[in-house]
Amino acid sequence: MAANSALENVPTAEILAELDRRLKETPEKRMILIGPPGSGKGTQGPIIKDRFCLCHLATGDMLRAAVAAGTEMGKQADKVMKSGGLVSDEIVVGIIREAIDQPECEKGFILDGFPRTVEQAKKLDAMLEAKGVGVDNVIEMKIDDELLVKRITGRLVHPPSGRSYHTEFRKPRVPMRDDVTGEPLVQRADDNETTLRKRLGAFHEQTSPVVDYYARKGLYASVDASQKPDTVKTAIMSILAK
C-alpha cells in the first residue's frame, strides 16, 4: 500500500518516462525454448517473457491467431489446412516473421515448439539473418521420461483459462474444481501413458539433430527441468545473463 500511495503523487508522464527508460535498458533476447510436453516450458516461458519484455510465440497459437486475423500467411495456412494438407515450413516461418514484426516483439521473442527439424532451423536462421538479427540462446528443458510420464498422466486442466493442476504435485483446493472459478477440471484425452510415450519418442528423435545444430553454433545450453520451478528459473536466468 505504501508504494501505491507514493506513486499517486508522481505525474503520469514521469511514470511513463521511467517505464520507457527501463524498457530501453532491457537487453534484446531472441531465444528458443526446447522441451517435451510437461517439462515446464509453460511455467518458465511467461517468467522469461516478463523479465526481458519479450513476446512468447507458441507455434500452434501463432498459427491459429494468424488464421483468425486473416493475415497473408494466415490465409495461406487456412487454405492448406482446409484441404487436409500439412502447413509448410515456409508458411510457418512466414507466420513467425509476421509475429516478430509486431510492437510487442520489439525486444525479442521466445520461440516454443519451433524449430522441430534442422531444415526448419536453417529456414528460421535465414529469415532472421535477412532482418539483420539471429537467435541468441537455445535452452533445452531436460527431464527423465519416467518422471515426465508421472507428471503428465496426473495433469488436470481448466480449459477456459489453461490453468493446470496435478493429482499429486499441485492439487486443486477442491477435487476436480478450478481454484479461481470453481468450474470443472478435465484430463486431456492425449494425457495418457501410451500416447505420451509415442510423443516422447518422436520428440527425442526430432530434437537430437536440432540440439546438435545449435550446439555447433555455440548457442545451446540445458537445464535440469526435474527440479523445483524456482530452481529451474534461477538456472535459466543464469544462462541468459551470460
Automatic annotation (TrEMBL):
Transmembrane segments: none
GO MF annotations, alphabetized: AMP kinase activity; ATP binding
Coiled coil: none
Keywords associated with the record: Kinase, Nucleotide-binding, Transferase
Pfam families in the cross-refs: ADK, ADK_lid
PROSITE patterns named among the record's database cross-references: ADENYLATE_KINASE
All copies of domain Adenylate kinase active site lid, residue ranges: 155-190
HAMAP family: Adenylate_kinase_Adk
Entry similarity comment: Belongs to the adenylate kinase family.
Record protein name field: Adenylate kinase active site lid domain-containing protein
Species, as recorded: Diacronema lutheri (Unicellular marine alga)
